[in-house]
Sequence to fold (410 residues):
Amino acid sequence: MKKRFSLAALIAALAWGPQSAQNVSAVYCYPGDPPAVYQACLAYNAGIGQQVNNQNQLSSIQRQISDTVAQINAIDAMIANLNRQIAAQKALIKQTQDAIDELSRQIRFGEASMIRLQARVAIRDQLLNQRLRFVDSHGTVNYMQLVLTSSSMNQLLNRLVGAQEVTRSDNKLIAELQVEHVEMLDANQILDNQRGEVMALLQQQRAIQADMEKNLAAQAAALAYEQQLQVQLQAKYAQVQAERAAIDAQVAQLYLQYAAQAQAAGGGNGAFQWPEPACGYGCITQGFGCSTFYLEVYDPSCPYPHKIHTGIDIAGPNGTTIVAGDTGVAYLYPGSIGYGNLLVIIHGHGYSTYYGHLSGYASGMYTGKVVARGDAVAYEGSTGWSTGPHLHFEIRVNGVYKDPCIWLGC
Fold:
């Protein structure tokens, strides 16, 4: 027991100082605890070993991450970590309470046994004291007197046997009392150890409970902030989709204006060049199709959340040259919310291509310019709704997005 308290005190002393500001700290796991408590304690410490201060983490997310989606992802990760910590804390608290209940039961039985033992010893102590007082007042057995006062040999022998029995009984009583007094000392020591163990477990339980309350508060704050972000995200999503619809409508009008010119230049034959020659198929980071990313375009044919990625993402180094997939007429749309800097090329025969998140356009590019297949038209970037440098490339047929790999062979 002393070893446990000394180790706990040492750990507490080492933890004091700048680290004491941490809102959750490891606890000392005493190998002498009940096995379930010890294992739960180890699991708890393993769970918090990787923890970052949760309140500071939430503030950091709010302060340093400007992108709403990235904030939500960071909040989700933080909440998942908090859930693991809270589960470990609840498990440790339960195991600790179970151990406290069991020790308390043992203490109650031990105290009852102690009362019975104390009563028995008290009675036997009283008997011994009476014998000692009798001996003190009458002296020890006078064998000469027994001989002289005996009327016969049988009486003498009976008296001698009786005296010996009294002596043996007295010696036995003394020996038994010595054993019982030792038993009382041992029982008291066991009860003291159990009471100390209960106190240590209660102290540990209070510390874990306090840590869990802080985690629950951090969890509630994170969930509340995530709800705010979801509202912002819904508004931003509606804004992006409205902008996308406006771009598509404008492209539809431009198609009528430029299709004939693009076809005359040789565009619209249905053959497309890979748009980023310096970075091949291995640079595709997201393909065309249904997506769980809730900022993508709504598509009822996809499973929940019914979103679809309308092109392919090609992630090369920032500033990588992008070329026209086919001959056509360029339309520049810089600074959109979703696509960022966008280039649309109208090819004719219903075909058009979209190039999003550009860092900039090639020199001499302007809306209405005729570009040939393979001409440098722009540079890869991370503008708009983007998490890193990449080209978002789409092929549209009569305004409907299609899988670019159908034509590119990826």
In short: Confidence is low (pLDDT under 50) at residues 1-24. The domain at 265-408 is CATH 2.70.70.10 (Glucose Permease (Domain IIA)). Helices lie at 2-15, 35-48, 54-64, 68-138, 143-149, 153-264, 405-408.
